[in-house]
Amino acid sequence: MDAAKTKQYYDALGIENVCQCDYCRNYVKEIKGTYPLLTKHLQTMGIDIEKPFETMPIEPDPDGNIEYIGTQYVVMGDPSDFQETDISGMHIGIADSHPMTDIQEEHFVLEISEIILKWTIQQYDQKGNES
Question: Given CA atoms 35, 40, 41, 46 in this order, what sign does their dihedral have?
Fold first, then answer.
């Protein structure tokens, strides 16, 4: 695992490289403030928590929360240095499957299981009205 190369990777990613769907925008908006310990832990690996590689949300619940059953991040380097861990009730491990990264250097993809956030993004219908 190479935290310096991972940080370089995330520093080079602009916000335009993060999916702009409502689910991902909500994730980016809420994750850092909701999970400060997770944010700090990922920072030690060079990961910017606000730039997920992939999120796997389910629909918001009636209480105004949304569960992301998995969120993935790219990590540069050899995965043999990585140790799975649990932080704030979430499991951090190596992803079993993920979309193609198109990265030529040695890397792997982490997956964080079961993140719950407030749903704060307003949704709009096709006519531009709030729904």
Answer: positive
